[in-house]
């Protein structure tokens, strides 16, 4: 662990907490937002910021009985902060990757049936009255399409 980075973060907290005494307090838990250079210690419980390809880990979240006392113990010294960081599950990377994938696949892909229309003709017949199609398009056209199109292409061509 790079203690220089930990010490910088410890000093940052010491400065910020004087003007914001509830920094990292979230109800009955703490949510320590980590700087970018310490994100490898983030856990999934802290959530993420950003969406899609921009999603990133945030920090370390823990449920505690007394958030202010817990933070005082964590930020007592750079060494206690380092111990807190090392106690993290460090599982944010996997979580963020699932968030990225989920946001990149927002639009569900249209399901297509790529079987040949000929092999799945019974399924097609269950959806439509074949006599209506023969009257509208002609038997020869339907037979030719049945032999060379996929189910999806056949259904699109004849409006099924």
Radius of gyration: 30 Å
Low-pLDDT runs of 5+ residues are none
Strand content: 5-15%
The tally of beta strands, per DSSP, is: 5
What's the end-to-end separation, in Å? 63 Å
Tell me, briefly, the overall form. rod-shaped
The arrangement of helices and strands along the chain is: HEEEEEHHHHHHH
Trace the largest sheet across and list its strands: 1-2-5
Number of domains: 2
Oligomer: single chain
The computed structural class is: mainly alpha
- Report the total helices: 8
Q: What is the helical fraction, as a range of percent?
A: 40-55%
Described by strand count, sense and barrel closure, the largest sheet is: 3 strands, antiparallel
Mean pLDDT: 87
Summary keywords:
rod-shaped; 5 strands; three-stranded antiparallel beta sheet; 160 residues; two-stranded antiparallel sheet; mainly alpha
Describe this structure in words.
The model has no long low-confidence stretch (mean pLDDT 87). This protein has two domains: 3-104, no CATH class; 121-158, no CATH class. The protein has 160 residues and is mainly alpha-helical. The protein is rod-shaped, with a radius of gyration of 30 Å. The chain has a three-stranded antiparallel beta sheet, covered by helices on one side. A two-stranded antiparallel ribbon has the order 3-4. The chain is built from eight helices and five strands; from the N terminus they run αβββββααααααα. β1 (25-26) and β2 form a beta hairpin.
